Amino acid sequence: MMRDLPENLSLLYVTNPMCAWCYGFTPVVRRLRALWQGRVEVKVLFGELQAHDTQPLQHEHKERLALSWHRVQERTYLPFEYRFFIQRSFVFNTEPACRAMLCVRLLRPVLTLEVLRAMHSAFFVDNIDLKDTMELVRLVRLFGIPENLFLTLFESEEIMQQMEEEFAYVDSIGATTYPSVYLSTEDGPQRLAAGYVDLGELEQRLLQLL
C-alpha cells in the first residue's frame, strides 16, 4: 500500500516544550517519521501555551496540571517528577523554551525533534526551569550548538518577532489544541489530529486523508 502513496509529504507538528500531552506525543511523531522515512517530512511549529504568563501558578492551576500529567502518564507510561508541584512561586511561561526551540530549528533543523524530546524530559522528569537562559544553553550545547551562536540568536529582536509571528500563524490555522498535526496541501494545512493519538490512529488518519 505504501508504494501507491505520494512522496515528499509534509506534516506540521504543532507543539510546546512545556505541554504534557506533547511530551507524550513527540515519541509518536518521531516513530512516524522513522517508519515513513523518505516520504514524510515533519516541520515542528510552536504554539502559544501561556507564552507570556507573569503570575505564579495558583493552586487550582496546579491541580489541573497534575491531573493532566497523571493522564499522560497512564496513557504513555512516561516518567514525571511530581515534586514540581511543591514549588511555591513557579511562573508557567513557555515563551523562552519556544524561542529556544525556534533557534534550534533555524540553526540545526534536523535536530529539532531530538532537542524537543530533550526539553520535554528536562522539564517533566528533571524539573529544570526552561525559563532559565543558561539551562537552555546547557541543553542545546549537548547537541553541538555553540553557546555564543545560540545566545546571539536567542536574544535578538528578530527572533522574538519571529516567535510572535509563529504564534499568530499557529492561531490562524486553528491549532489551539496541543499537540496538533496537519498535512500540508495545496489548499492549505489539513488537520490530522488535535490532541494526543497513538501511532496506529495517526497513520490511519494520514492514509484516509491521502
Brief overview:
With 210 residues, this protein is an alpha+beta fold. Helix content is 50%, strand content 13%. The chain has eight helices and four strands, in the order βαβααααααββα.
Description of the molecule:
With 210 residues, the chain is α+β, with helices and mostly antiparallel strands. The model has no long low-confidence stretch (mean pLDDT 94). Helices cover 50% and strands 13% of the residues. It has a four-stranded mixed β-sheet, sandwiched between helices. The longest helix is centred in the first third of the chain and has 18 residues, at 59-76. Helix 1 runs parallel beside helix 2 (59-76), helix 1 (20-35) packs antiparallel against helix 4 (112-124) and helix 3 (95-107) runs antiparallel to helix 4 (112-124). The protein has helices at residues 20-35, 59-76, 95-107, 112-124, 133-141, 147-154, 157-172, 199-209; strands spanning 9-15, 40-46, 180-185, 188-194.
